[in-house]
Amino acid sequence: MSTVELDETRAWALLLALRRAARAGRVIGSDVGLRLGDGDELVEAGGSDAWIVARPSSPRLWSWPDRAQVGHAAVETLLDLYMPLCVGARDWVLAHLGQSLDGRIATGSGASQFITGRENQTHAHRLRALCDVVLVGSRTVLEDDPQLTTRLVSGPHPVRAVIDPRRRLDPGRRIFQDGVSPTLLLCTPEAARGPERHGRAEVVGIEAREGRLSITALIGELRRRGLGRVFIEGGGVTVSRFLQAGALTRLQVAVAPMVIGSGRPSFVLPVIETLAEALPLEVRHFVTGPDVLFDCVLRPTPRG
User: Fold this and answer.
1) CA torsion angle for 141, 290, 124, 143 (degrees, to 10)?
2) Is the pTM here over 0.85, yes or no?
């Protein structure tokens, strides 16, 4: 095969193939050249036949097959951003929030569509395509009525999960009725004693303490179902609970060039007295249209 110019479309197709391979149990443990076959399957290749070289032991996780090759900047950004989610650990828990420069994810009335630009919306849809399950809290469903699909990009729709401990959301909500992809309503064991379905969504009882679902039990239930790659899309309270519980592998925050001045904060965490108590982060950043995306690596230490 002759050398192929890797554009954004081919690079994204390659990332989706890596995602499919990971789901099938194929682990890339050593350096290997990769390209796509005629059926968009992942193929190992050498020399000029390879589109990229996967390097799981290197910080960047990939390289061009020919060091002299000049890569397209947008393609390099795409691979740098998503390769950590496609190579390596089978399971991860990633949370993403879009906020204003002053740390607000919505106005006081709950208006949040859209603080960040179109590029960050596309990024969120790509994260959905790479994960097994996308998870949101009940307030996000109540106020945004999201679909949580991959309609802006190519790629499979994830399983959708909604945290609604007391099962208060209307079963007529779009996410519970559209049947686009399997949907779970996660609630307390007491609330799960009602009908087995909430609209068309499956009702799943999760161990709870004082009316709040156990993060450890919730992640365990998802993994029991084969849903190991978890994308938490909001809102701020839900992301904060997972962060406080030490359950996140990665935290991504897209910061928009906007000052709201009041409204809902990105994070709601216990008060600390000294900076020594602050959470240290290993951070990369990417420019996505008008926004700056901070990609933070955490080391999960589940506590709740």
Assistant:
1) 0
2) yes
